[in-house]
Amino acid sequence: MKETIEISTVKNYSMCLRDALETFTKELINCVFDEQYQLLHGEKTKQKFLTILERLSINESNSIWDEFSTSFYAIRRKLDLDANAALNNDPAAKSLEEIYLAYPGFYAIAVYRLSHELLRLNVPVLPRMMSEFAHRYTGTDIHPGAIIGDSFFIDHATGIVIGETTIIKNNVQIFQGVTLGGLQVKKSLASTKRHPTIENNVVIYANATILGGDVVIGENSVIGANVCIRESIEKNSVVTVQYENKIFKKEGL
């Protein structure tokens, strides 16, 4: 006979917060980039934040907002560096306005930098909710626990995964399909560094996979498309996949 569970014993979760979080995150980014929007809607955005924390049973929400909001200027300065990195490195970029308004990689970085600050303030759950919204919205999955330096550029964005303990230093460029991941997925490894470190001035091309917490990609290196790396790479290296295309003509043509 199957055991039944009484509804009264099942913990209720506020799944509707996913929709509220999506609206809040969009408004939050608007406040960071648009002073006029912040003047008109900043208080409403704050109230949404306080309501979300209340529904998540997080105390001292006002003091958290005060500390969080004081970081907006510094976050905006970092994002301006990220936007300039895109403009300077992408030949298709015509203007900063295009990057701010149309680049999914830049939007994913913006959500990351805000969610990372909330994680630094020891806010539970909410940073991961924000990163998953960005994942759905842009196709880029950046864990808020990752540490990412200045002038970070993501080109095309789709299919990128950056794990929780990843460290990315300054002036790094990555392309679509890149995975910075772990070699193993075990709960016992939760408190260890599972994801790679990327030093300054590294370029990682499409669909490259770099796995392991002990792996360091040395500065000024170039990681080619479709490469899979499980060991450290010295600085100033170029890593490529060796393959040969064989082209045949159809008979009779």
What does this protein look like?
It is built from 7 helices and 14 strands. With 253 residues, it is α/β, with parallel strands linked by helices. The chain has 2 domains: 127 residues, serine acetyltransferase, domain 1, CATH 1.10.3130; 96 residues, UDP N-Acetylglucosamine Acyltransferase, domain 1 (3 Solenoid). The longest helix has 21 residues. It is globular and about 65 Å long. The N and C termini lie far apart (70 Å).
Could you say which overall geometry the principal axes of the C-alpha atoms support?
Answer: globular
How is the main sheet built? 5 strands, parallel
Mean pLDDT across every amino acid position: 93
CATH topology of the largest domain, what is it called?
Answer: serine acetyltransferase, domain 1
Report the C-alpha radius of gyration, rounded. 21 Å
Structural class of the secondary elements? alpha/beta
Number of domains: 2
Low-pLDDT stretches: none
Which H/E pattern describes the elements? HHHHHHHEEEEEEEEEEEEEE
Instruction: Please write the CATH class name of the largest domain.
Output: Mainly Alpha
User: How many angstroms does the end-to-end distance come to?
Assistant: 70 Å
CATH superfamily descriptor of the largest domain: serine acetyltransferase, domain 1
Proportion in helices: 40-55%
- Which CATH architecture of the largest domain is right? Orthogonal Bundle
Strand order of the largest sheet: 1-4-7-10-13
- The total count of helices amounts to 7
- Portion in beta strands: 5-15%
Please provide the count of β strands.
14
Task: List the SSEs and their pairings.
Layout: H1 17-33, H2 35-55, H3 61-70, H4 72-89, H5 96-102, H6 104-120, H7 126-138, E1 140-142, E2 147-148, E3 153-155, E4 160-162, E5 167-168, E6 173-175, E7 179-181, E8 197-198, E9 203-204, E10 209-211, E11 216-217, E12 222-223, E13 228-229, E14 238-239
Parallel strand pairs: 1-4, 2-5, 3-6, 4-7, 5-8, 6-9, 7-10, 8-11, 9-12, 10-13, 12-14
Helix pairs in contact: 1-2, 1-7, 4-6, 6-7
